Amino acid sequence: MNMNIPFDEHKIQSHDGTILTGYDYGGSGNPLILIHYLGGTAKAWNPVIPFFRSHYRIISYDLRGHGKSEQPHQGYSFEDTANDLESVMNHFEIEKAHLVGSSYGCMIGLYFTAMRQGRVSSLANIDGAIINDSGEHGLHDETLEEHLAKFKGQLDPDYESVEEFQQVYQEQWLPWNKERANYVAEYEPRMKENGKVGNITTGQTMEKIISEIYYVDFLTWYKKVRSPVLFLPAEKEEHFQKSLNFIDLAKKELPYSETVVIPNTTHLMMFDHGKELAEAILKFHSELPVSEKSIR
Q1: Where is the signal peptide, in residue numbers (predicted)?
Q2: CA distances (Å), 256 to each of 31, 158, 219, 225, in order?
Q3: Which has the least CB within 10 A, 150, 183, 184, 270?
Q4: What are the sequence ranges of the domains in the chain?
């Protein structure tokens, strides 16, 4: 279902001159903006877009350092990501939108929702911004340096060819299915200076973003959010119960929120539970207070 989805591609200049690539998938209704995960591209949303097209005008974009967007050496703070998203909305003349994020995309959406209240109708967090990396309610008690050391050699691996790149993903990215196969087939890895093939997002960029995330306390951002929030934790993730406990803390600060657990979901659930994911978001939007439904 996720092949040959029509879209218009746009080049968008952000606040610091970085050129982002945005995608307008058309559709009718209120704007829905999809924000992908760390290391991914906007094409990750292909499995769910068909379920949304008759309900929304759908927009996505490659985050800076990802996909067809530029990859500057600097500019990876959450305020930079908020400025990028604001630039995308302004380019497409969108005043206010529903945001849907995956993993790192949830963090971007949460920060934006907290800091630019008037532009967000609702936020759906797909297994992201639902537990801190560090601190009292975090997953790790190590320093950032110790944390980064665990990823040594993993953030930007070398592949001998595009074929090897695709083969490794098929063997390691489980549960492998046609949605994942389509994404990998359409992904255009970068050619490295050493003649090898690698991910589009460099190891240096990955480290910068991981460093920006590591000490954030998402609860301080949730305290500022007045928009409705849908939490979609992945049931099969090993820290699922810790995430549920963290969500309970976050919900204490929110005027309106829901939690939906789709059975047997993994972290990037759009690839194997696209229909159920879209249905959960549609249901959430249908039950929002009337004041949140009348947007442009």
Answers
A1: none
A2: 20, 45, 15, 10
A3: 150
A4: 8-140+216-293
